[in-house]
Amino acid sequence: MTRTPRATASTGLYERRPLHFNPALRRNRFNRLGTAVAGVFAAIAVLPLVLVLLYVLIQGGRLLSLRLFTELPPAPGFDGGGIGNALLGTVIVTLLASLIAIPVGVGGGIYLSEFSGRSRFAQMVRFANDVLAGVPSIISGVFVYGLIVATRLFFGQSYSALAGGVALAVLMLPTVIKTTDEGLKLVPNELRLGAYGVGASRFVTITRVVVPAALTPISTGVVLALARAAGETAPLIFTALFSAFWPDGIFNPIATMSVLIFNFATMPYPAQNELAWAASFVLVVMILAANLLARWLSRISRA
Amino acid sequence: MTSPYGPTGSDLFTLRRRPAAEKFLDVAFHQLTLALAAVVAVLLLGIVLTVFSGAREAIATFGLRFLTTSAWDPVKGEYGAFVAIYGTLITSLLSLLIAVPLGVGTAIFITEDLMPPIVRNVVGLMVELLAAIPSVVLGLWAIFVMEPAIRPALDLLHRLLGWSPFFASVPQGPGIAPAILILVVMVLPIITAISRDALHQVPIELRQGAYGVGTTRWGAIFSVILPAAISSITGGVMLALGRAMGETMAVTMIIGNALNFNLSLLAPGNTIASMLANQFGEADGIQVSALMYAALILMLLTFAVNVLAQWVVRRLSLKY
Q1: DSSP alpha helices (H): ranges in A186-253?
Q2: Nearest by CB to B40, which of A125, A227, A237?
Q3: Average pLDDT over residues B283-307
Q4: How far apart are CA B118 and CA B120, in angstroms?
Q5: Residue B115: is it exposed, middle or buried by C-beta count within 10 angstroms (0-12/13-18/19+)?
Q6: Which of A50, A90, A138, B148 could, after both became Cys, cross-link B248 (CB 3.0–4.6 A)?
Q7: A44 contacts in B (CB within 8 Å)?
Q8: CA dihedral A174, A176, A179, A180 (to 10 degrees)
Q9: Where are chain A's structural domains?
Q10: Is A33 exposed, middle or buried (0-12, 13-18, 19+ CB in 10 A)?
């Protein structure tokens, strides 16, 4: 035995251990186990995405045809038809939501970053924004139901596309405000000072210098918020409701793809179930494309 | 030489006076953005007030009995939300129990260099894209693909553990257990993303110090890196808990929306959010008010969890 017990005075302060790697040591076995477990966990985390995408692409892609985009859904028990009204409805409702959420969100973000500093009011708005971001989406639907649908606020109409748009706007707003606020904070202060130095007013400085400099982070946030809103169902079920017909103005109930998936998935008719898969395919492709666009935008803004 | 602003003449050094219109524009812009920022606070207040005023009738009628009774009878007008509250808590807590180890493990896989960067980046991208899949699509998948696929496993669970009240019923399609699994899929990306950011923020000196005194990679992860990141990870887990409680569509489609209380995880159940999604459209009278009451409870639960999460992150974060 060349090894001596630890801390004997004759061998000095340190125990002499072999310096080459010994895979049988407990610490090294534990190390390998940890790596294997992390790998397995990562594989499990990726598995659902792969499976969901696979099924949506196969089940939904099979039904892809021009008719899918141009025809109305069939009556229960009949075959064929498409999701044309729901596709158009999703576009309309999301557009209405962004018409409300983008101006309010970008304006609020400008206030937080450019005018408020660390004031009490700004802290309060930021806190309210964080809380609003955590409010469950179904609550936004309940709120709009109580405020607009039940009170028939819009020309005596109860369920309407506009009510659905407002409900989605409530969900988009926190994201737009937060990304605008944080995007504007990243703009170097020299740009503002330079603009003031050549005699620009505050309004001109913000609208012509600061906001354009932060356009990519802001648009990233807007695209992400849009993608999320387009896929939301819970706020629409009892605000925009559903309709089996083409959209009829923004003060009437409207079909959307997400509500169509919800309604048709639980019906006992195979034709409706297939349309639900097809709508999922269109929705997932749209949303993934928007997300990849947002990632690309944030990459060019960093470069 | 004339100047459009100051007094005319050759006085080049006259200060340019800001015209009234320009000053007005500045002030107006300031006030406009102030008003837009205030919209957020007003909106939050509006949500609380709307839901509360809608719930007032049910609060007056049922009081706190609403929380502990499980009658849901539109004919008699008798309502209690115990089934839904129990379902909300049990599904969100159990799904976190599964999702936290998976999410933190995946975050470690992405941040520590166990694998070449290309593999880590692909895994990171895929987990982020999973967060983008709409809840209703996951619900559709859960109904037609996941639930039939896991039925044999649930059957086995019932046969082995059927003696305990938690697995006492025969699995027949929708139920609490599949709802928990789909919630795991939905909160996993949140936990992974926040844990990844937390691990990225651990200063490199801490890692170098750990390796310098001769520990292994996993020694460093367990005794240095994870403790340094634990506050942000805890905050992220609580945010995920809030999300799981409020998650609606996928759960509604797979949980079975039972009105009767059943302790078994293999039986159909209900959550507050799925109850709202299912009944709100067709409800009237006191039922609307009872649903608003349930919505108020859900809102208070998620509010408490979110505020606690922010507090945890601020209070527990280590200062380097």
Answers
A1: 189-197, 202-204, 211-213, 215-231
A2: A125
A3: 90
A4: 5
A5: middle
A6: A138
A7: 102
A8: -120
A9: 66-302
A10: exposed
> Model confidence over B14-42: pLDDT tens digits?
666 778 888 899 999 999 999 999 999 99
Instruction: Please give the sequence-ordered ranges of beta strands (E in DSSP) within A43-102, or none if there are none.
Output: none
pLDDT in tens, B40-50: 999 999 999 99
Strand-pairing partners, residue B78, are B73
A218 alpha-carbon distance from chain centroid: 14
pLDDT tens-digit series, residues A105-134: 999 999 999 998 778 899 899 999 999 998
Rounded to 5°, the CA angle B41-B42-B43 comes to 90
Q: Which CATH class is domain A66-302?
A: mainly alpha
pLDDT tens by residue, A162-204: 999 999 999 999 999 999 999 999 999 999 999 999 988 999 9
Cα(A145)–Cα(A151) distance, integer angstroms:
8
Please report, as a single letter, which amino acid is at residue A191. L
Give me the residue spans of the domains in chain B: 83-319
**B233 CA: distance to closest CA in chain A (Å):** 17
Q: Which of residues 244-303 of B touch A (CB under 8 A)?
A: 245-249, 252-253, 273, 276-277, 280-281, 288, 291-292, 295, 298-299, 302-303
Q: What is the rounded distance in angstroms from the CA atom of residue B140 to the CA atom of residue A300?
A: 36
Q: With a threshold of 0.90, does the pTM exceed it? A: no
User: How many residues are there in chain A?
Assistant: 303
Q: Does the domain at residues B83-319 carry the CATH identifier 1.10.3720.10?
A: yes
Q: Distance from B113 to chain A by nearest Cα, in Å? A: 10
Testing the interface with B: which of A22, A56, A100, A138 to mutate, by most B Cβ within 10 A? Answer: A138
